[in-house]
Amino acid sequence: MSQQAVLFVGHGSRDPEGNEEVRKFIQEIARKMESVRVETCFLEFERPTIADGIATCVGAGATHVVVIPIILFSAGHAKIHIPAAIDEAKEKYVHIQFTYGRPIGVHDQVLEILTYRVGGAGIDSSDVLEDTAMLVVGRGSSDPDANSDLFKISRLLWEKIKVKWVETAFIGVTAPLIDEGVERCIRLGAKRVMIVPYFLFTGILIQRMEQMLLGYRTAYPDVEFAMSEYFGFHPKLQEILIERANEALVDDVKMNCDMCQFRLAAMHDMDHHHHDHDHHHDHHHDHQHDHHHHDDDHDHDHDHDHHKHVSVGGERS
Length: 317
What we know:
Radius of gyration: 20 Å
Number of strands: 9
Helix content: 40-55%
Strand order of the largest sheet: 8-7-5-6-9
Number of domains: 2
Low-confidence stretches: 256-262, 273-312
Shape: elongated
Mean pLDDT: 85
Structural class: alpha/beta
Order of helices and strands: EHEHEHEHEHEHEHEHHE
Largest sheet: 5 strands, mixed
């Protein structure tokens, strides 16, 4: 019988507090998964790396390593970078079985987490709030699939919470940006704007949004602004990741990029400019898969050229 290990892959942050939250969160999950070894690693900005994490699992005697991305949506990291690290490990550990699990994705329990978080910030799902807008803010990606999933989450949230409007925006990479989202909420007539960070843990971008919130209160003194908490240590988030791990442990993963022809083509392209996965990804993958791949999940501290603002929000009549 194979000895199994689950390796959870956090994104990694320039903020040590965010990385520590990931570690503590996975420690809690490990206590609920006592039958398997559980390890934590990071995609970038922090160690151990994925390669380090796999080496730890194998060194402990694991013959089946399950890799679970602690990532909200399936974009460049989930589709390209993590599978690339697994592919390298397969060449190094030829007798080890690897299974790659799904990211969190659009999940009904995510909506429960969001409902709880906005409730903690003052919006009850039973209230009818005709003058209130919620602005769901994601990290932003150059992958249209990931961006559209956030719009879907916003729509589903609108179905659950009786506010007049739910709008969607991003902190970087793509439009509409958060400033545009706030402006749209006010133009629609909102007298109260609840910013809802669609982030797992704290980090540079959460801190930036907290500072932006102060700026909005100054710029729009007649509008009430609030911001809900990020996902954090919510038990439903633990349940989602344990679910992702369990389905991979029994090889029942419903989405896997192992045999994706577009990913394989990207891997071939990467071979021509191979890099050490212990450092930050700073290249782009220019292939088509009904989306573009890009370093989409980073703490972006630089400006991007943005296309025209397009908003697809919910509004109650």
